[in-house]
């Protein structure tokens, strides 16, 4: 499992700066949210290909949208 996890995590400030830079280059916040949610779904599928039930828990803040995209993709795949 460690091969799927990053060796380092970004701070909140670093992630905000990365998001701002991406949006300044023309990528919308909606597009970033969709990419993040779908990327998380792809990682989940690679790690647990036989999973048929998942739980998506989202806290307050912008990442709730990422979780919604992940949950929608999982539902569309039959989870």
Structure overview:
It is a single chain. With 79 residues, the chain is an all-alpha fold. Helix content is 58%, strand content 0%. The protein has three helices and no strands. The chain has helices at residues 12-24, 29-47, 63-76. Helix 2 crosses helix 3. The radius of gyration is 14 Å and the shape is globular. The two termini are 21 Å apart. The model has no long low-confidence stretch (mean pLDDT 88).
Q: Globular, elongated, flat, extended or rod-shaped: what is the shape? A: globular
Helix run count: 3
Oligomer: single chain
Can you tell me the residue ranges where pLDDT is under 50 for at least 5 consecutive residues?
A: none
Radius of gyration: 14 Å
The amount of beta strand, in percent, is under 5%
Give the overall pLDDT as a whole number.
88
Query: Kindly, what is the distance between the CA atoms of the first and last residues, rounded to a whole number of angstroms?
Result: 21 Å
Strands, count: 0
In brief:
This protein is mainly alpha-helical and about 80 residues long.
List keywords for this structure.
mainly alpha; 3 helices; 79 residues; 0% strand; 58% helix; globular; single chain
Question: What is the fold's blueprint, element by element?
Answer:
Blueprint: H1 12-24, H2 29-47, H3 63-76
